[in-house]
C-alpha cells in the first residue's frame, strides 16, 4: 500500500472565508524550546503564534531559542521537581509532566486565554481546566494512539496490579502518566494533531471521530539540509535515528548481511541501545557505526540512500532531512508520509528482511533510479515540508479547533 498523496488537512482558505485565529494562546510542553526534535517543533509553533500576534504565554522547561521574546515564556527549569532526577527515568519524566500540567491548569484558571495547545501525556489537569472554562484545546501527538491500533480493555490486568501496589511503590506509581490518563486527554481535547495517515488510522480504529483529527506534517530546514554537489561513487546507505528494535535496526542488519554487496557501505548514525550491541558486534565489516553526531546533514550528504524500516513512528524526522538532502529512501508506511512509493522512494513492510533486501538491491543495481528518486524527494520537501509550510498548517489547525468549539 502506497503513502497517500494528501500530505495534511491543509486547505487554502476560501475567498471570503478568513482563517480564524485566537486572541491569546497558551502553549505548554514538558520539554525545551529550540534545538532539535520536539524542541524545534515547539519553537516553530511559537514563532507562528508570535508572528500571528496571538501568543499569550508558553510554559516549558528550557528555552534555547531567541526568536520569541523570553518575556512570553515561563520556564520550569528551577521547579523543585528537578530534585527527583535520581528516580528511574519513567518516574522522573512523569513527575515533570505532572508539574507542567498543574502549572498550565493554574494559568488557564487565571484567565485571558482563548486557545490551549499542549502535548499528549502532559495535560490531563489542564485539559480538564480548559474544558471547564470553555477554552478550545489542541492536543499534539508525537507518535500513534497509545493503543497502537489495537483494541484494548479500558484497564488491563497489569494496570490493575499497578493501581493496587502497596507503599512505597504506590507513591512512585502515582508519578507515572497512565494509559487511562492519556485516553481521557484524547476525549477532552477539541482537536488532535496526528502526524501521518497511519497515525490517523490508529485513532479511527480506537473510535475517535475523524472530524476531531487533523493530519499535521512536520517541517525541515531546506537550507541546512541540502543535496551534496555530487553523489559518492560508493553505494553508501545510511540510517539516522536511535539504534533500537522498534526502528527496524535488526531487520536492516539482517537484510544487509543477506546481500553481501561489493563496494557498498552501511552507515548507522545514532546511539545504540543495549539490545542492539550484540547485533553490531556480529555485523559485516562494511557496517560503520557513527554513533551520535551533531552534523547530521553532512552525514546524509555522504550517502546515496536513506533506509529507515521503522515499525512505529509519528512522522520520522530523518525522512524529512534525508529527502531535503536529495537521497532516495527505503522506508515503511509506518514511518510517515514523506516517502511516496515509486516517486521519491520505496516502501516495504516493517519486519520483513527479504522485502527490505530486495529494495536495497534494486537501488544498488539501478543508480539512475536512485538519482531520480533523490531529486524527486528534494522537490517534494521544498514544495510541501519547509517550516513555513509547517506554520501555515498549524494556523489552519487552530482555525479548525476554534470552529469545532462553536458547534
CATH architecture of the largest domain: 3-Layer(aba) Sandwich
Oligomeric nature of the chains = single chain
Helical residue percent band: 25-40%
CATH fold field value of the largest domain: Rossmann fold
- Poorly predicted runs: 1-16
Q: How would you write the strand order of the largest sheet?
A: 5-3-1-6-7-8-9
- Residue fraction in strands: 5-15%
**What is the CATH first-level class name of the largest domain?**
Alpha Beta
Fourth CATH level, the homologous superfamily of the largest domain: Glycogen Phosphorylase B
Number of distinct helices: 14
SSE string, helices as H and strands as E: EEHEEEHEHEHHHEHEEHEHEHEHEEHHH
What's the number of extended β-strand segments?
15
Radius of gyration: 22 Å
- Biggest beta sheet summary: 7 strands, parallel
Number of domain modules: 2
Mean pLDDT: 93
Molecular shape: globular
Q: How would you portray this structure in words?
A:
There is one protein chain. The protein has 407 residues and is an alpha/beta fold. The protein folds into 2 domains: 215 residues, Rossmann fold (3-Layer(aba) Sandwich); 150 residues, Rossmann fold (3-Layer(aba) Sandwich), CATH 3.40.50. The chain contains 14 helices and 15 strands. The strands form 3 sheets. The chain has a 7-stranded parallel beta sheet, with helices on both faces. It has a 6-stranded parallel beta sheet with strand order 12-11-10-13-14-15, sandwiched between helices. Helix 3 runs parallel beside helix 6 and helix 11 packs across helix 13. The longest helix is centred in the N-terminal third of the chain and has 22 residues. It is globular and about 65 Å long.
